[in-house]
Amino acid sequence: MKLYMSVDMEGITGLVDYTHVDSSAHNYERSRQIMTDEANYVITTAFEQGCKEVIVNDSHSKMNNLLVEKLHPETQLINGGVKPFSMVEGLDNSFSGAIFVGYHARASMKGVMSHSMIFGVRHFYINDIPVGELGFNAYVAGYYGVPVLMVAGDDQAAKEAEELIPNVTTAVVKETITRSAVKTLTPTKAGQLLKEKTEIALKNRALVKPLIPPEAPLLRIEFANYGQAEWAHLMPGTEIEANSTIVRYQAKNILEAYQAMLVMTELAMHTDFC
């Protein structure tokens, strides 16, 4: 069995605000250690359950957060940027399943540090279905026939995963109070939970089907202001919907939609707010 892992940061145990996930802030270094430990709990259990290969993709911000020297020695790590497929770089049809660790809720929803790629996004839609990073990444996995077996993060990420993916295993390491406050497990207790849930997820993998994306999906991104929509509209093939901040793009498949999303969100970040 070959396992793919995408590891984000906002859904990691005990992390609550930008001081934990911004590399220039004072809590970041201790947070990346917790992130690395959390990944290791899942990786170690996967090998104990018979996985022959585990590929881990660092999926937060500049994507160079995980401490490679402290990962399980048999792990292969994908890190750094720019990655053509960002949070799902390296994912293909050779994997038996995928696990998402450290995930958070989508933009505009309740959940600690909830967002979708950038803070200027209100909603992503695939054929009018609202998705966040979790859902978009699961669709890419589904394109390759790979089921998402487990999602670990806060309670709202777990809720989002369960609504999208029948029979998915979820590991809730913290419960949302507000967008910047949680009731959290300690890293030790979270580690025990992650081990238990990973074992369950791998044993029940036959119960989870890939989240198959629609053919020729219509991608729609609603931005926070019109300036962001204007920047995103610089990408050829897009149009701004009338009287809105929604930019749409008709994609050939979910892979093209994903890369279109990456381009549009990168462009939108050039917007000045003054």
From TrEMBL:
Keywords: Metal-binding, Zinc
SUPFAM superfamilies with a match to the protein in the record: Dipeptide transport protein
Residues noted as binding Zn(2+) 1 in the record, renumbered to the chain: D8, E10
GO molecular function, one term: metal ion binding
Active site feature: H115 (nucleophile)
InterPro entries assigned: DppA_N, Peptidase_M55, Peptidase_M55_sf
Keyword match Lipoprotein: no
Record carries keyword Ribosomal protein: no
Protein name: D-aminopeptidase
Source organism: Robertmurraya siralis
Protein's gene: dppA
